[in-house]
Amino acid sequence: MGEDIRLAAVVALAQGMAAAHGSRDAWRAAAAGACRALGGSFAALSVWERELGRLRVLVNVGELAAGEEEFPDGEAYPVHQFPEITEFLHERWAGGGEPNAWVETAEGPAAGGRPGYVHQRVAALRRRGRGSCVVAPIVLNGRAWGELYVARPAGAPVFGREDADFATVLAAVVAAGIAQAERLEEARRLAFTDALTGLANRRAVDARLDEAVDRHKKDGVVVSLVVCDLNGLKRVNDTRGHAVGDRLLERFGSVLSLCGAMLPGTLAARLGGDEFCLLAVGPSADDVVRAADELCRRAGELELGEGVACGVASTADPIGPVRSARRLFRLADAAQYRAKAERAQRPVVAGRGGPDDPVVRLADAAPSGQAGERRTFRGRQP
Predict the structure, then answer these.
(1) Residue 375's pLDDT is what?
(2) Which candidate, 295, 296, 300, places its Cα nearest to that of 257?
(3) What would you measure as the largest C-alpha separation in the chain, in angstroms?
(4) Count of Cβ atoms closer than 10 Å to residue 309 Cβ
(5) Mean pLDDT in the chain?
(6) Which of 106, 148, 174, 219, CA to CA, is 20 to 30 A from 352?
(7) DSSP secondary structure string, 152-200?
(8) Which residues, other chains included, contact 131 with Cβ-Cβ below 8 Å and sequence gap of 6+?
(9) Would you tell me the crossing angle of helices 371-378 and 325-341 to the nearest 10 degrees?
């Protein structure tokens, strides 16, 4: 392969990883780009999970053998089966450079191979109908992170030393792409996470709720919102200090997360201050009300605070058409406002008060600064 072609392959690999949205896309781009660059028929990217003592496959691309999946859930191998990975510690290249890739074949070690380590690799090549592979260690932040593996089918030209050297270059490009993807993933996580409780924040709720309401309008999926106001936080802050108040917020956040887990796929979030919510997409309204009831019960048992005021609004209840996220929020918040005013020990549910439901009237009559509207948008920022 000419130098210009290989340079273009390196650029294409870097560009593919840079354009990826999230870690999984970056893994796929890395494996696919390396597979094309090396003229392989199959490639895999694996990570070394030190704490579990295993090499776990993140992604497989190309011609998959029986039992292989693109994103496998449980394909992992004990490190003792591939002990070479444990040698890639910083001491090995402390004097400069990085560990080289190597080639193995279904017939045994290729030129420049690593005798003593080939038995598992050779068996895997034969079992899957592949003739040779090149294995390149991936080093991230001065430590072995995992490996890039590219294979060719039986009968195809065997990888050579030049291919192994090129694979070493590709592994360095992949390492840089993974580092960038991880930084972006962390930035996205922080942008949508409440720093104190670890729950989602208001920005995450807004994005998810907009998508959910679109699905409701298109497919009729049930969307439910539980809005909560933690009672007694100001008293705790004033009498026992903000550190204790923060502890109350954290404990209630844990209770909210636990009750949200009763509803598959539910988002638990802190909207800001003492306001929290659950966003459920799919579960029935009755299931959501049961989870909210459990939330009220558990909140009332917390050592600190004075329970919670909880309002529920669901598109499955008679609340009128829900054409926007804003309306569902207004209804849930109006229900929560009523629960707080009545010191209710259980959730107040919009639309379940009969033909002239007071919660729906409260929400619909206060579009600009009254009742539910005021409370809904008070804590917009995380």
Answers:
(1) 42
(2) 295
(3) 84
(4) 28
(5) 85
(6) 219
(7) EETTSPPP-HHHHHHHHHHHHHHHHHHHHHHHHHHHHHHHTB-TTT-SB
(8) 105, 106, 125, 151, 152, 153, 154, 155, 156, 158
(9) 110
d(CA 31, CA 24): 11
pLDDT at 91: 41
CA–CA separation, 195 and 191 (whole Å): 10
At 51 the three-state DSSP class reads helix
Distances (CA, A) of 30 to 22, 60, 180, 186, 257: 12, 10, 12, 19, 35
Residue where the block lists tokens 């593996």: 149
104-144 pLDDT, tens per residue? 899 875 544 454 444 678 888 999 999 999 999 998 887 78
pTM (global) more than 0.90 = no
d(CA 332, CA 226): 6
- Give 342's DSSP letter: T
318-336: per-residue pLDDT in tens?
988 899 999 999 999 999 9
Q: Is the pLDDT of residue 248 over 60?
A: yes
Helix ranges, the chain (H): 3-18, 23-37, 118-127, 161-191, 202-219, 233-240, 242-260, 285-300, 325-341, 358-364, 371-378
DSSP assignment letter at 71 = S
Residue 285 phi, psi dihedral angles, 5° rounding: -60, -40
Residue 43's SS3 state is strand
Q: At what angle do helices 3-18 and 23-37 cross, to 10 degrees?
A: 170
Give SS3 for 230.
Answer: strand
The tokens for 64 are 């998959």
227 to 44, 296, 315, 373, 382: CA distances (angstroms): 45, 11, 15, 13, 15
How long is the chain? 382
Amino acid at 83: P
